[in-house]
Amino acid sequence: MDMCNSNVELVESHLNNKQKRKFVSLGMNLEKVFCILEAKGVLKPLRPKFPKFIQKNGGYCKYHQVNGHSIRECRAFKNAIQDLID
């Protein structure tokens, strides 16, 4: 097996494991969770990055501070919360 194929398999394995992450149900909407964690100083909004493509109809993400998706759909925020729980 050559090095490229070995690396591809390693990356694919990592991606498959990452996609299978289960998120604990918090019993409240993520916007409220964000407000609570921000107020307690546990999480801060990320510095906005200005990607090449931002959807204007996707909602506003308080965590990323950009339009394009709502915080309810934000995988980065869900992962940040799950990291605090784990």
Largest beta-sheet characterization: 2 strands, antiparallel
Taking all Cα atoms into account, the compactness measure Rg is: 16 Å
Secondary-structure class: mainly alpha
Q: Secondary-structure element sequence? A: HHEEH
Shape verdict: globular
Can you count the beta strands? 2
How do the strands of the widest beta sheet line up side by side?
1-2
- Annotation field: number of helices: 3
**Share of helix, binned:** 40-55%
Uncertain segments are none
Mean pLDDT: 80
Q: Give the oligomeric state of the chains in this entry, treating copies of one chain as homo and distinct chains as hetero.
A: single chain
Per DSSP, what share of the residues sits in E-state strands of 2 or more residues? under 5%
Distance between the termini: 36 Å
